[in-house]
Amino acid sequence: MSGDAVKAISRVFGWLLFLSLCLGSAAFARTTDHSTLDALQGPFKTGPDVTKACLSCHNKAGHQVMKSVHWTWDKISPTTGKRLGKKFAANNFCGSPLSNEPRCTSCHAGYGWRDNTFDFTQQDNVDCLACHDTTSTYKKIATDAGHPLYEPREIPPGSGKIVQPPNLAKIAQQVGKPGRNNCGACHFNGGGGDAVKHGDLDSSLIKPSKSLDVHMGVDGQNMVCADCHTFNDHQPSGSRYAVRATDSHGIDLPKDDHDRATCESCHSATPHKKDKLNDHTNRVACQSCHIPEFARGGIATKMLWDWSTGGKRGPDGKPLYINDDHGHLIYSAEKGDFKYAENVRPEYKWYNGVVHQIAITDKIDDSRILEINRVEGSASDANARIWPFKVMHGKQPYDTVNKTLVVNHVFGKDDTAFWTNFDYAKAIQAGMDYAGLPYSGKFGFIETRMNWFITHMVAPKEKAVPCGECHTKSDEGRLAGLTDFYMPGRDAKPWLDFIGWAAVVMAIFGGLAHAAVRITIARRNRRAS
Amino acid sequence: MSTERVMIYKRFERFWHWSQAILIIGMMITGFEIHGTYSLLGFGRAVELHTLFAWTVLTLWAFTIVWQFTTGEWRQYLPGLRNVDAMIRYYLYGIFHGGKHPFNKTVLQKHNPLQRLAYLAFLALMGPMIWGSGLFYLFYNQWPRFGLDAYISLEWVAFVHVVGAFTITTFFFVHVYLTTTGPTLLTHIRSMITGYDDHEH
Q1: Which of A93, A305, A435, B109 is the most core-located residue (most Cβ within 10 A)?
Q2: ipTM of predicted assembly, 2 dp
């Protein structure tokens, strides 16, 4: 079958798939009106009470969720075999959830992970509503280990603002498919605030325009996260520990694995009308051209986090906090120095599907900047493609003797938590003791880099990166840093250019000189006659 | 002595020559932009036009090759070293001193001995070098299918292409200058347009 025929068929199937997605979420959405179910009439005292009610019908859902990374925060990398997940993988944002659970687990798909005694086998502790609330009124409170409010509370304390608990029965009666608010509640706020972590995920994607995200744009396809991050038995597809460098499977048909977290799942590997563009798709990830900048939604993302300066106090003896002109916190006694940026051009790296993620127990080389999750690949690696990244700059505590990163105990009302006492020595000792990891007692700060795959905020095709931003001799070229391959428009042999232009110039001047002699002699002859 | 107008360059030949001239100029302009020498149309647009011109010139060549063989005109490009020295002597000396052009165009021999060599080099060497490497360039992504990626690299295909480009550009300027060496500055160009050449008897 010719390439064109395959393309045409792929396109037809792509549309069928798209239509089935649309219909699936509209016409065939409901066969059950949850508001009429006896089990959901409430009232519900706690989140786990709601979960029990859900599980009284959906009797496999709890155990499905309990296998998912949303619950375990523990995952074996499919490419390196290394044990990762939030419990083990290092990062250069907040650090480790260990010893800081009540704060961090406000994004756990469960209730009550307060400390390391949490029972991961108790299915009533699964939080169904975080993902299935359709009213946008369900909120896990920041500091209660994944629970929502059950009583009115003044937040923050002393502010006089009383926050009311959500109406769990009403929410339970209106459950549905996860929307952007559900996923966004955690994934837009990674790193402790809106837009902080990813750069391509923030609250601007709740109601984005088409120009910000061509798929999610409310004035366009109006897709939600789960349209691409398809779930199978409550297991999400797509993982940043093992991002697929290339999806050689291509279009995902109904008979396939229902994993659509790649562009190719809907668009195929050769989606362009222009053949030369399709020629790029084996070496350049779609995202590299189609996401010209990240943090485009008007919300700045954090680009630098320097823990080493944390703990300063102002003249009044109180912990110091400094905001810049845009209202961004640029210094916090709790966390150190920050830098932010909007509309950021990604950095580009070869990536072959393997991420070398540092775990908090790994020996590190402190003689240079530590790359926390090096992505593997090069031009000579046929499986590698050029991918865009947000490269997060960090400086964070580590054990200078044992050469490991450390668990920093930041959150809590005890006398060791850094955010309460501003004493790194105590906070790190407490964190390492809690985690049961060896600690020499001596710490320093190491500069770190972390690669964040840029894969959301896909721009409309008109806004794709123009060819000349890579194919250029300019030092500002997007791929100026990737020098291990020949790229037309950028690379040339200077000696060949020299010889070539010399030949052209000699041809031109040779002609002119010859003409000059002809003219001169002709004039002289004319005068002579 | 009488002057007779003789049809030297037939209609297809003139069409071929001038359309090829336009295409080559277009490919020089877009090609050196693709090479990164300057920015004019933007890389993407330059590539598109360059590719379009390339396919057009290849199509033109296909017709031209048929034309050369069916008309027997291919003989016009048969090289020889006889009288090349006379041509060189003319360009280096005779032309300045009112010497007579050592070659008379006829329908059977429309190219002087130097032209035969130069045009043969153009058709048999420079042309194939540029469109051969150009086709490899265009079908870069098909190399693995034929196992070619083990033997050739884009860098060296580009090298050959650029060598071809510089050679043709140099040829172009010399060629244009030499059109002015007829009895008057525009004689040669005029006969390339009208097809007629004035013959003295």
Answers
A1: A305
A2: 0.91
